[in-house]
Amino acid sequence: MNNLISILVLIWVTVGCAHSQTQPVQYGNNEDTGKYFPIRGINMYCEVYGSGKPLLLIHGNGGSIDAFRNNIAYFAKDYKVIALDSRSQGKSIDPADSLSFEMMADDEAALLEAMHIDSAYVLGWSDGGINALLLAMRHPEKVIRLASTGANIWPDSTAIIPSLWLNDKKRFENTKPSDFRTPKEKNDWKLFLLDWNQPNISLSAMRSIKCPSLIIGGDHDLIRVEHTMQIFQSIPNAYLWILPGSGHATLIDFSDEFNRKVDTFFSGPIH
User: Fold this and answer.
1) Which pTM value belongs to this model?
2) Does residue 116 lie in a domain region?
3) How far apart are CA 73 and CA 95, in angstroms?
4) How far apart are CA 62 and CA 127, in angstroms?
5) Whether 62 contacts 188, CB under 8 Å
6) Which residue has the higher pLDDT, 116 or 7?
7) Prior bond to 199 cis, omega within 30?
8) Is residue 6 part of a domain?
9) What is the pLDDT of residue 222?
10) What is the C-alpha separation between 123 and 195, in angstroms, rounded?
11) Which of 262, 271, 12, 249 is nearest to 126 (CA)?
């Protein structure tokens, strides 16, 4: 009887341990690694995974660290992955009524400083791709190499597919900011205005980016392929990758190929 009880206990412990090991990581809400840093008037939230060369991940508008749920584990094998919640998004709360891409790029540089990281590889998606470009422009010493997917550098229908731009135009024209009451409603509108009015970066300004840069887009992206090519052509040391059959979520819908390609770019020689 005692032997039977011991066997049953062993089975219960083994199954319990196996179950606990298969629990998915709660990216963006991981108490084991999450930490706040006082950055430029806000408490910026970030999570760190792995060790090695520092890699900064920057999500898109209204997103959070969880946007990189298909990428973090892959890169954490060889990199110290620093995934952040940008200002006014995720857990990085900012009640102020102003927001700009330049402000966020300066936040990212300040975060690296606070973490005592001289420079990092940078991967940005959508608004995060814009931030990656601006970080390389405003703080070139902080960026070793960058990969930017789904970024635009001005906010009109020559950069964004016309159907999306027209929908945003209707929302802008038909919205009364005075109707917003809750902090979330006000913050959501602030994030909408960020993409409606910004960024405003010239192609000539792209020439100031000196680090090797991988410019990525889907051939069915929300950002026009022609615009993505303009960005690529304006950066002196840039490489272009357009994913066939992909929309805006290149790093999610084609995560395996995306991870390998970006890793190869970051770790490989540049000719």
Assistant:
1) 0.90
2) yes
3) 32
4) 9
5) yes
6) 116
7) yes
8) no
9) 98
10) 19
11) 249
